[in-house]
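User: Hey, quick favor. My workstation is busy. Could you predict this chain's structure for me?
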Amino acid sequence: MSATGAVLPPRHRPVEPGDRPADRRRGSTLLRHLAVALVVGLLLVAVSYTVEPFRNFQLATVAAYLCATAGLTVLTGLNGQLSLGHGALMAVGAYTVALCQNAFADRGMTGGWLLPLSLGAAIVSTVAVGAVVGVAAARLRGPYLAGVTLAVAVVVPALAVTFDGVLNGEQGLSVPVEPPPASLGPYFPYERWQLWLTGAATLLALLLLANLIRSRYGRTFRAVRDDEVAARLAGIHVARTQVLAFVVSAATAGLGGALLAVLAQSVSPGAFSLTLSLFLLMAVVIGGLGRLAGALWGAVLLVALPDLTHSATELLTLSPAVAQRLEGNLPLAIFGLTLIVVMIAAPGGVQGLLSRLGRALLDRWSARRS
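Assistant: No problem, here it is.
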C-alpha cells in the first residue's frame, strides 16, 4: 500500500527480505543441513546401542579427528593455503581444556556446564593462536607458508616441555571429566556417553562449516584460491579472507584436540607431534580436498590405520623391539603409499572417486529407463 492508501501492483511492491531468491536459497540450505545433521545424530544414537564399547570409543575418536580434518579441508581445499601445523593447533585446544578442567576440579566446581565452558575456552584460545599464524601466513606463499606452519608444529609441543611447571613436561596433564548424567541410569556405558558428546560437538561444527561453505564467505574463499589477482580486482580483500579461513580452520582444530583430550582424559606433547600434522594433511588429500565428506574418509583412515598396522605386526613373528619399531613407522609408510596410489588413480580423493562412480551408475540407470 502506498502513502496515499492505494494498493500497489505486485511488480511495484517493495521486495521483502524473505522474497529474495538468495534468502530463500539460504533458508532451504540451512534447513537441509539441519535435517541431515538430525538424521546423522539419530543414526549415531542408534548405532551406539548396537556396537560394543570399544567401537563406540573408536567412533568418538573419528568424530574428534573429523573436526580437525574438516577445518583443514576448508583451509587447504577451499582457500588454497597449505598448513603443516594443525597438530599444534589441536595441542593448543587440548592443553586449554586440560587446564580449565583441572582448575575447576581444584576449586571443587562440578556441573554439566563446565565441560562445554572448557571446550569454548579451547576454541577461543586456538582462534587467538590461529589469528596470529594466519596474519603471518597471509603474507607468505608456497614453501614459505609451509615453513611457518611447520615451525608452529615443532614449537608448540616443545613449549609443553619448556613450561613444565604449568604443563607438566613430557608427562602431560590429566583431564578430569565427570561421569554421564545420573538421569541416564547408573549403568550407562561411559563410551556411549563419549560418543554422544563428541558426536554432538562435531555435528554442530560441521553444520556451521557446511553453511559457511555455501555462503558468500565460501565463494570468497574459492575465488581467492582460484586466482588472487582476479579476486582482488573483484573487490575482495585477499589477506583478510585468508586470515578468516585460517581462523575458522584453527577453531575446528582446537575443538578436535580438546575432544581428543576429553576422550583420552589426558594430554601430552607426544600425542601432537609433527607426525600428526603430516597425517592430517595426507588424510584430507586422500579423502578428497574441498569436500567435507572427504574429511570424513580422512578421519576414518586416521583411526583405522593404527588398528590395521597393529594387526599386521601381530601376524608376523618378530622380536618385540623390531615389532615396536615397525608399528611406529608402518602407519606413515602406508599413508605415503596410499597417497601416491590415490593421486595416480583418483586425483579427487576417495570422495571424488565415489562421486564419479555414483554419476556413472546414475547415467547408466537413466539410459536404461529411456
